[in-house]
User: Which sequence fits this backbone?
């Protein structure tokens, strides 16, 4: 599971700070999360293979999270894309995008599907045999969802030496990986646990931005491998959280601690702070394993 | 008159090539012409003072000419802008922008006026005592206008030595600058031409992008100081002009020659060409004074 930060700063794009966008590579999928202005250039800068993106998740319709989407959709068309593209985002996103394509007489040649969201309950947006993607309803000035990406448990690992020793025929190996007991060449039952090992525990990632402090999301995030949680402000500016519905680094850390997260990644920093280490220091007073998102940084879990 | 090229490449933004946008500084005005994705970052990169932009002219509603507009409008709001902003562009532009602001509950606090265009005849969009801005109807796949910026003739220049010698009272100097004859301290009429000099000839600039070869625009551009004319292709790819409704460097030069332009500036290059000098060479076979637009380049006239 690799997370590439394309942009992690709040508000307006600058020459050195890009608005929110991330690429999550998980079990062969390349999921794009949010798409601020300039995301298509960031994708090129960090050499992400455009064509592998099939699913785009938009948290909310503030510009710093979605003004780059229409340009990316248009570029896919100019590059001759044929594969379908799925956009998941708040109600209204379809009209905002298609109106612009219509005005430019620039309909996509590839299938473009919008999945509009308006529920305040967690919803499964995507699921296959390897992963699931679920909304995490957040608390912001406009309708906003985070997204929870979960790997499904993989197959059990074969302990080849033990299987050979137990005289299990090769043809039973895939059945063993699936967790079944089998009968060996001597006609005896071989217990699965004696010849297989537990698979890697499934990993999970949650993207929570933008949001006010929202402990209601904790049960959904329980034992998560990695949590990206916005920290627009430091505690010294906590009063700004009330009107803007953002969080502080400390509040992000409280969520990570309550959820028993493996790693907390901070981001969506307000432009007023020169030293991002202040965010880490504030969060580490509550929760130990804190990382700072930075444009271009790749996290592997 | 200073022209700053913020972006001059066709189609999609890349790390090294930005889509169309220009700043024209003329008689104290700072006019923004087109606004491809990433324009607000280019404005910062080239240290253009945001707040001085009061008028934005959008040629047409293809993404590489206007996808950066909604972000710029939003950023003005975040920066606390109070001055009004005028947007001139094809019909539909108001809905495309306001829909996105509405979805983000991000109405501007400053007055935002849209001037929607649908005429196929030249129209005066802006005029004061110093300059006028007129549409130049172009021929593209969607409704498109170029823009013609004309300085108005300035006041005549006082030949102070001559005026003193002719015994003209100081109080008549401003009347002289306005072109009138005056009576001197001896009661004699002093002819204006004897004590004043011609002002600098008014300069003019036309932006013509995107367009197929369109000689109908020549009379409007007659004797223009500087002409920016798109040259998406070279003649070797002339066949692509028919379907895409773009021009070659040669065609741009023919327009410049017919219009008796002072300088031709080429731009909107297709990404297929590695060496932009080929554009200059092709145009110079027809017209001598050819410049190549490049991101960040400033032309002074």
Assistant:
């Amino acid at each position: 599971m690799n997370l590439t930060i394309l942009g992690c700063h709040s508000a307006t794009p600058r020459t050195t700070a890009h608005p929110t966008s991330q690429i999550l590579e998980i079990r062969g999928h390349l999921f794009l999360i949010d798409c601020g202005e300039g995301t298509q250039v960031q994708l090129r800068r960090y050499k992400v293979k455009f064509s592998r993106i099939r699913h785009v998740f938009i948290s909310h319709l503030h510009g710093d999270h979605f003004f780059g989407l229409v340009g990316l959709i248009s570029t896919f068309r100019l590059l001759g894309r044929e594969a379908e593209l799925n956009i998941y985002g708040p109600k209204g996103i379809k009209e905002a995008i298609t109106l612009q394509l219509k005005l430019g007489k620039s309909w996509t040649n590839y299938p473009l599907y919008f999945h509009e969201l308006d529920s305040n309950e967690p919803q499964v947006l995507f699921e296959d045999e390897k992963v699931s993607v679920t909304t995490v309803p957040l608390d912001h000035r406009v309708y906003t969802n985070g997204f929870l990406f979960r790997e499904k448990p993989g197959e059990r690992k074969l302990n080849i030496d033990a299987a050979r020793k137990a005289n299990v025929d090769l043809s039973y190996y895939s059945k063993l990986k699936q967790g079944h007991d089998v009968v060996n060449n001597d006609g005896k039952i071989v217990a699965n646990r004696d010849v297989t090992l537990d698979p890697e525990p499934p990993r999970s990632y949650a993207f929570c931005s933008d949001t006010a402090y929202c402990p209601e999301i904790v049960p959904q995030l329980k034992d998560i491998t990695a949590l990206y949680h916005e920290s627009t402000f430091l505690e010294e500016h906590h009063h700004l959280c009330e009107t803007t519905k953002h969080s502080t680094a400390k509040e992000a850390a409280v969520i990570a601690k309550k959820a028993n997260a493996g790693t907390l990644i901070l981001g969506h920093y307000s432009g007023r702070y020169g030293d991002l280490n202040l965010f880490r220091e504030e969060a580490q007073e509550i929760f130990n394993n804190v990382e700072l998102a930075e444009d271009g940084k790749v996290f592997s879990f």
Q: What stands out?
A: Residues 207 and 287 of chain A are 18 Å apart (CA to CA). Chain A touches chain B at residues 11-15, 37-38, 40-41, 44-45, 60-63, 67-68, 70-71, 74-75, 78-79, 90, 92-93, 95-96, 99-100, 103-106, 141-142 (CB under 8 Å). The first strand of chain A starts at residue 2 and ends at 7.
